[in-house]
Amino acid sequence: MALSDVPLSLLDRAATREGSTEAEGLARVLARAERAEELGYHRFWVAEHHAVPGIVGSAPAVLMAALAARTHRLRIGSGGIMLPNHQPLVVAEQAATLEALHPGRIDLGVGRSLGFTAAVRAALRTGRDAAERFEDDLAELLAHLSGAAPVTARPRNHAATPVFVLATGAGVETAARAGLAVVLGGPVLFREGPGGGTAVLERYRAQFRPSPWWPKPHVVVSANVAVARTRAAARELLLPEARALAASRTRGEFPPLAPARPTEPDGFTDRERALVEDALTSSVHGTAPEVRDRLERLIARTGADELLVTGGAYDPDAQAESDRRLTGLFRPRGR
After folding, report:
1. pLDDT band at residue 335, thresholds of 50, 70 and 90?
2. pLDDT of residue 202
3. DSSP one-letter code for 66
């Protein structure tokens, strides 16, 4: 499948930057969505993170409403709403309301992740075992969206909103049993062998059961992608987020994005340096020809139906240029 045949979308986590306010961070998300629509992106999704110093994307349904109001054709969605944090009826009502206001433009991506710390989980009234009921919560959510639940969610949705499951490992089986699209990303996507992305997606396709939402399997692969004039410049775009992610995994806090530096920050441990390199290795970055080649191989290997691009740069102008260069790879050659 040529890249020109693959819908291209963006996921923006609403990261904050050193030296700017949280309100400015949200304004950048809105501006990026408007630009994405002009460039021809298919979907624009936002995520859910609670009490994270470096991320202001805590209320995806609210942010989706603002994004949908500022755009006209672009599909707006969640990547995703974390079901353990919410009552399924409330999620169904939010999605149905957005769908009623913006018909045919809303996507509902859901996941099973918990709050990052015990204090956050306590504030959300969830325990460590909340993720174990994800499949039951998902079934209840779908019943509300389809109108099959004992309680009628209003406005009625009639299964009009496409539902996606953000999955790693066993999550693909949950998506397959429910008949939903699956979003697969992270290191597993690039891993070979029985636990690698190809094998995981084969299980999903083999176990898929058609549903009112999806008549056949639908795979969205998700990867951090950056395109620039040189490979070094593309790496620099992804470096601030890779460093913030490494800090979150070792120090328990995802900080605001800081400018890229030629060397690792003072005080970074060997483990943090290794985590930074792991994050960059499981990304796709480089010049336009380099990125085109890697993405073509990724799509061919996974049989993906769509590509969802993640990752956020510290420099908004450099991010805008990367977004523009990327869309050029997905146009038919010669145009």
Report:
1. very low
2. 95
3. H
Q: Which two tokens stand for residue 137?
A: 């919560």
Kindly list the distances between the CA atom of residue 156 and the CA atoms of 94, 127, 160, 180, in Å, as whole numbers in the listed order: 11, 31, 9, 19
| 334 pLDDT above the threshold of 60 | no
Q: What is the rounded average pLDDT of the residues 106-122?
A: 90
DSSP-based helix, strand, coil % in the chain, nearest 5: 45, 15, 35
What percent of the chain shows pLDDT beyond 70?
A: 96
Ramachandran quadrant class, 19 (left: phi over 0; alpha: psi -120 to 50; beta: rest): left
Say if residues 309 and 221 touch (Cβ distance below 8 Å): no
Cα distances from 46 to residues 114, 145, 265, in angstroms, run 17, 21, 29
pTM, rounded to two decimals: 0.95
Strand-pairing partners, residue 166, are 183
Bond from prior residue into 84 cis (ω within 30 degrees of 0): no
Cα–Cα distance, 328 to 331 (Å, whole number): 6
Q: What is the mean pLDDT of residues 222-230?
A: 97
Only one residue has tokens 């040529």, namely 2
Beta-bridged to residue 111, according to DSSP, are 82
Distance CA 187, CA 168 (A): 10
257: nearest Cα among 211, 302, 173, 319: 319
Tell me, rounded to whole angstroms, the distance of Cα 20 from its chain centroid.
23
Q: What SS3 class is residue 167? A: strand
Cα 289 → chain centroid: 24
Convert the pLDDT of each residue in 252-295 to its tens digit: 888 999 998 766 666 678 898 899 999 999 899 999 999 999 99
Beta bridge partners of 165: 110, 182
Token pair listed for 88: 């399924």
Residue in the block written with tokens 């304004």: 27
Taking a C-beta distance cutoff of 8 angstroms, is the pair 9, 42 a contact?
A: yes
